[in-house]
Write a structure and sequence with these properties.
The protein is an alpha/beta fold and 218 residues long. The protein has 7 helices and 7 strands. The termini are far apart.
Amino acid sequence: MKFASTNSRVADDANLWQQQLGPGLEALSLTASRAQQTHLLAYLALLLKWNRAYNLTAIRDPASMVSRQLLDSLSILPLIKGPRILDVGTGAGLPGIPLAIMLPELEFTLLDTNSKKTRFVNQVKLELGLDNVSVVQQRVEHFQPKQAYDTITSRAFASLQDMLQGSAHLLAEQGQWVAMKGQLPQQEIADIASVRDVRWESLTVPGEKGLRHAIIIQ
């Protein structure tokens, strides 16, 4: 009976996610193939499963996962420039995994110091066959790739100044940072505005009422 109950709950979660994903993508003006939508939902299923044993993310309510994990990550998709993307402090693969699913023509490196989180992201890469994803467990300031990156993303990783200082050696000459924030971090912007070209955009995430911003730094 317990096994049947678990299966029923999993099916209910999958149905709910499917109902939320299509309208959410449409609200973001994004088009996803059936295969891409299947991969996005499969990623959520893996995240929910692993989160029961490992503390990968604070978002545990299945009803909130499409908006707070997938749609939130994909809200910066129009800002991404390739071909090489680095997601710093990727955690459970956010925003890197959803972006990599939607942008298979670009190369994504997902970087984090936490071994259980990089193990999870490696498992996602394996199970979903994401050939455009590489996973690295290392501190950002110690990471020395062969090629620089066109876009460096982060989601609630660190202050803007700390992010720039830690990853400046990883950015290509014409590259950009795209940092995801909640409320607009006025002081953080002021701290770097004298040495960097900074702009920002408000992000509207379907299903979420809180403020979200993308800080774009050249």
